[in-house]
């Protein structure tokens, strides 16, 4: 009977062209991921550092970053060869709250920002974005990525972005490969696709402006059109920031970033 159920199963899959294409795309994603991982490991450290600095400078000098009030960003992992976010995170965290003195701007005349970073909850692609106020709020997880704990140094619960009363302006996204059409290939956990989908629905319900989804990318991670396999749950990015500049993709990116 196990043979019977197997053949029914595969017959159903084979008669479903969507299923077949999806399976093929998933396999192509795996192949592209390993190619890109290999290419990233072959970039000399000094070139990577140069690109890290160029990318972070583009973000830090931009009006769209300076004027943002709430951001979700990843905590970069050098071992994974992710574009460095250290300077960006520090800048977000350095905007001092003048509290009762009521200054809206700090000494960098930059708007005070709330920063949310990812925390993996389980293997079912569930990730939360929790607010941190200092890098000391972060602890290395089993994958050696720094993540927020559930409570901060004072024992207070870190705010979950899904429970925040105001919208996120910008998501700074990691990934393995991107193209100028806005496709993004992640590490395969589905964490960002699931999270971005949920946040998109939340923003829609609340009638908030959708956050700009901005991917940070080394030059070697930008693919020609039609190289990145696309599946149904993939969500596009609005823009890329590469060492050679900001690449706006969506109408929202042209409006808000140019
Ligand atoms: N900095 C950072 N934080 C993040 C993510 C990320 O991509 N970057 N995530 C985004 O999802 C979530 C964590 N997901 C992750 C998924 C895979 C791997 C990883 O180490 N992958 C290895 C290969 C593992 C394997 O399959 O053998 C790799 O890509 O080399 C890390 C994080 C949430 N936090
Ligand atoms: N919105 C979603 N709802 C349910 N499952 C999803 C969703 N998005 C992705 N998945 C599942 O997650 C797994 C990984 O998807 P995919 O290969 O597209 O990940 P990725 O884009 O590389 O990862 P990430 O989104 O974390 O960057 C797949 O099994 C996919 O079906």
Automatic annotation (TrEMBL):
<dbReference type="InterPro" id="IPR024185">
    <property type="entry name" value="FTHF_cligase-like_sf"/>
</dbReference>
<dbReference type="GO" id="GO:0005739">
    <property type="term" value="C:mitochondrion"/>
</dbReference>
<keyword id="KW-0067">ATP-binding</keyword>
<dbReference type="GO" id="GO:0009396">
    <property type="term" value="P:folic acid-containing compound biosynthetic process"/>
</dbReference>
<dbReference type="Pfam" id="PF01812">
    <property type="entry name" value="5-FTHF_cyc-lig"/>
</dbReference>
<dbReference type="GO" id="GO:0005524">
    <property type="term" value="F:ATP binding"/>
</dbReference>
<dbReference type="GO" id="GO:0030272">
    <property type="term" value="F:5-formyltetrahydrofolate cyclo-ligase activity"/>
</dbReference>
<protein>
    <recommendedName>
        <fullName>5-formyltetrahydrofolate cyclo-ligase</fullName>
        <ecNumber>6.3.3.2</ecNumber>
    </recommendedName>
</protein>
<dbReference type="InterPro" id="IPR002698">
    <property type="entry name" value="FTHF_cligase"/>
</dbReference>
<dbReference type="GO" id="GO:0035999">
    <property type="term" value="P:tetrahydrofolate interconversion"/>
</dbReference>
<comment type="similarity">
    <text>Belongs to the 5-formyltetrahydrofolate cyclo-ligase family.</text>
</comment>
<keyword id="KW-0547">Nucleotide-binding</keyword>
<keyword id="KW-0732">Signal</keyword>
<dbReference type="InterPro" id="IPR037171">
    <property type="entry name" value="NagB/RpiA_transferase-like"/>
</dbReference>
